[in-house]
Amino acid sequence: MPGIVLIGAQWGDEGKGKATDLIGTKVDYVARFNGGNNAGHTVVVGDESYALHLLPSGIISPTATPVIGNGVVVDPEVLLEEIDGLESRGVDCSRLLLSESAHIIAPYHRVLDKVTERFLGKHKIGTTGRGIGPAYADKINRVGIRVHDLFNAEHLHDKVEASLHQKNQMLVKLYNRRPIDVDQTTDELLKLGERLKPYVANTSLVLNKALDEGKTVLFEGGQATMLDVDHGTYPFVTSSNPTAGGACTGTGVGPTKITRVIGVSKAYVTRVGEGPFPTELFGEDGEWLRAQGHEYGVTTGRPRRCGWFDAVVNRYASQVNGLTDIVLTKLDVLTGLKEIPICVAYSVNGERHDDMPTDQAEFAAAKPIYETMPGWTEDISQVHAFEDLPQTCQDYVKRLEELSGCRISVIGTGPQRDHIIQINSLID
Ligand code: IMP
């Protein structure tokens, strides 16, 4: 009954798509459990590159069944566009299962995401503008619309009306915008629902049965630990739980079914949007990392903020997720550096912190305490055994492992599927 959770250990964009794809060929189900089309994975298969936002990376695998769990917020238009795009390139999406309990991102959520960000001014979060926060807010406020609501016109109209009642007052009176029409919104959602119907299922039941039958399920997290609404750098976070616990609530599978928790980390750190980032580099080094690592968002195209590896973040991720393995990606990006700094602790107002401060004012004031390791110049993309890496490269990885408090089981050495070093198997 292997239940494997795969999450981001930093601020997102760690290369989870590649890791999912790597183990996706050996699993029966790949289930997304949080977030929505704010995520973006690039999966490279042969010469083809796929940019996915909402669909689980397992959609590319010919054997796994892709699942969108109840914890995901689904923009029906985006999902259908993504399905059409893949089908036109010969990728069969008919196996997709969509939870009937997942919440819908309606057009008004996208409008609200943009206007509230503008209204926040200097306090803005730097969201992806996809309506994620407003859709989750409706879920918690109990005025959300779920997938199964799309199949009953009267019921849906009632729900849209309830949801828009207060929002239209806000849009008109506070944000100086036009009100959103209930009838038109209901009709649009009904049409989209018709097209989604073939994919809809009781995914909690499907996944539990699969696990009971000894099948392997990979639970794929969107975003990452430091963007978790509870455990991340609040308020500069997303509105869901991308940490390992979210895999259970976001799919309806109990914690006793989880056998592995794999965290994906870059060999350095990136972040998009606002919020504190202790190891951020502003000068030439930051530009160099961005250029070498092609650090531009898959979803928004925004340049990512870049910095050195932060071991405090990774230790924290090991702790809050209960990590069993780390997949270290993009090690090749660091090739050519004479020396590589690693942040081992923070100095906060002159005091050393080895652990993550929970007070966000302290985290915002944290200055990295660096240890410096020698770099390497050799091309590592064709190396497939850890022992064949340059000695300084091995030492760098070993030090990251020691500081993170979790073993590094896979190393990414380039963008292609076979650019990896596998130290431990990710499946029992
Ligand atoms: P939202 O999820 O669109 O509400 O954005 C909230 C914060 O999470 C912003 O800082 C976004 O840039 C960040 N964010 C959301 N999704 C991702 C992702 O997949 N990778 C990296 N950052 C993300």
Average pLDDT confidence is 94
Radius of gyration: 22 Å
- Sheet-strand content, in percent, reads 15-25%
- Name the CATH homologous superfamily of the largest domain: Adenylosuccinate Synthetase, subunit A, domain 1
Structure overview:
- With 428 residues, the chain is an alpha/beta fold.
- The protein folds into three domains: 159 residues, Adenylosuccinate Synthetase, Chain A, domain 1 (3-Layer(aba) Sandwich); 94 residues, Adenylosuccinate Synthetase, subunit A, domain 2 (Orthogonal Bundle); 158 residues, Adenylosuccinate Synthetase, Chain A, domain 3 (Alpha-Beta Complex).
- The protein contains twelve helices and 19 strands.
- It has a ten-stranded mixed beta sheet, sandwiched between helices. Strands 16-15-17 form a three-stranded antiparallel beta sheet.
- The radius of gyration is 22 Å and the shape is globular.
- The chain starts with a strand and ends in a 6-residue tail after the last strand.
- The model has no long low-confidence stretch (mean pLDDT 94).
- The protein binds inosinic acid.
- Inosinic acid binds next to α4.
- The site of inosinic acid has 20 residues, from α4.
